[in-house]
Design brief:
The complex is a heterodimer of chains A (about 120) and B (about 110).
Chain A: E1 5-7, E2 10-13, E3 19-24, E4 31-37, E5 44-50, E6 53-57, E7 64-68, E8 74-78, E9 87-94, E10 105-106, E11 110-114
Parallel strand pairs in A: 2-11
Antiparallel strand pairs in A: 1-3, 3-8, 4-5, 4-9, 5-6, 7-8, 9-10, 9-11
Chain B: E1 4-7, E2 10-14, E3 19-25, E4 32-38, E5 45-51, E6 56-59, E7 62-67, E8 72-77, E9 86-93, E10 99-101, E11 105-110
Parallel strand pairs in B: 2-11
Antiparallel strand pairs in B: 1-3, 3-8, 4-5, 4-9, 6-7, 7-8, 9-10, 9-11
The chains are: A mainly beta (about 120), B mainly beta (about 110).
């Protein structure tokens, strides 16, 4: 396995609620990228954090926000949940930020269901 | 921004035959092209990657080729085995640093 962990494994929320997902990066990695993977689709880039700063963002609304901590672990927060937010949320750990071609190693994901 | 197209969406092969998956990308500044394998309910796992200064890379039964002029890259799996059955994703990292994924190819290897 990759050494990247995520919690929780599964989560059920209702529309309008808020959720926080967590990711611990692989030892030695300073970059965490978050992806949303809807059923039957490829991962879609949400944003990336490099050395505690947001380092790139995909086409997701501001209600998707994040943090990276000094130990390089990261959180993804989603406010005002919508039904379409139901998906597998993956984080990926790597080294070197957006300009790097370093390999991204994925965590096991958090399956979010919004009812 | 980057756009990655992947074909075919499904691929059925007999055990022992070869499988080929093709991807095209739009951003000519893309410089990194990984391939991930995702089994049902599991995380995507890197199987091979190629950087823009290399045209071909091989790792045992898996090879990737890159044609920067045509902006396409391909995954080749030889001597397929039932455990190769999974969804395969190509991806490209563009000038703005975002890793863009293709829609995936469901590969089924039948004994």
């Amino acid at each position: 396995e990759t050494g990247v962990t995520q919690s929780p494994t599964h989560l059920i929320k209702t529309r309008g609620q808020q959720v926080t997902l967590r990711c611990s990066s692989q030892s030695g990695h300073n970059t965490v990228s978050w992806y949303q993977q809807a059923l039957g689709q490829g991962p879609q880039f949400i944003f990336q954090y490099y050395r505690e700063e947001e380092n790139g963002r995909g086409n997701f609304p501001p209600r998707f926000s994040g943090l990276q901590f000094p130990n390089y672990s990261s959180e993804l927060n989603v406010n005002a949940l919508e039904l379409d937010d139901s998906a597998l949320y993956l984080c990926a750990s790597s080294l070197g930020g957006s300009i790097s071609t370093d390999t991204q190693y994925f965590g096991p994901g958090t399956r979010l269901t919004v009812l | 921004g980057e756009n990655v197209e992947q074909h075919p969406s499904t691929l059925s092969v007999q055990e022992g035959d070869s499988a080929v998956i093709k991807c095209t990308y739009s951003d000519s500044a893309s410089n990194y092209f990984p391939w991930y394998k995702q089994e049902l309910g599991k995380r995507p796992q890197l199987i091979i990657d190629i950087r823009s200064n290399v045209g071909e890379k091989k790792d045992q039964r898996i090879a990737v080729t890159l044609n920067k002029t045509a902006k396409h890259f391909s995954l080749h799996i030889t001597e397929t085995q039932p455990e190769d059955s999974a969804v395969y994703f190509c991806a490209a990292k563009g000038s703005w640093g975002k890793l863009q994924f293709g829609a995936g190819t469901q590969v089924v290897v039948t004994p």
